[in-house]
Specification:
This protein has helices at 18-39, 44-73, 78-102, 106-134. By secondary structure, the chain is mainly α. The radius of gyration is 16 Å and the shape is globular.
Amino acid sequence: MYRPLFIKWHESNETGIARIDEQHRAIVSIINTFYDMMVAGMDNKILYSCISDTMKHYSRIHFIIEESFLEESGYQHLEKHKQLHRQLALEIEQIEYNSIKTNDARPLLEFLKNWWLGHINREDQLYAQQLRGNNNC
């Protein structure tokens, strides 16, 4: 059965940094897969296991790479950006806990969609021009 994507990737989401954009698209794909699993009626325990393992590990890898690019470029707001990344991990833990407790995956899914699109389209766009100018990425 065809289902529309929960998040549709747009060119406006791109930073112009190939590695970062590729990883962002992968994160959006993970969220879309989580949505498909939820709509298909997958058991919530399996959903949380999948989203926790996949999203947390992939996000951690992405943040390490992104932060190394920012450090190499001398990005002046690096510490603030790192703090946003750390805050995401804490918020996911809390929302995931509440979702498990209420047996409702939708709040976690909505949070991930809003956080990632907001982060990509606001915070990541702030450093994009500087990194593109360095041509290291």
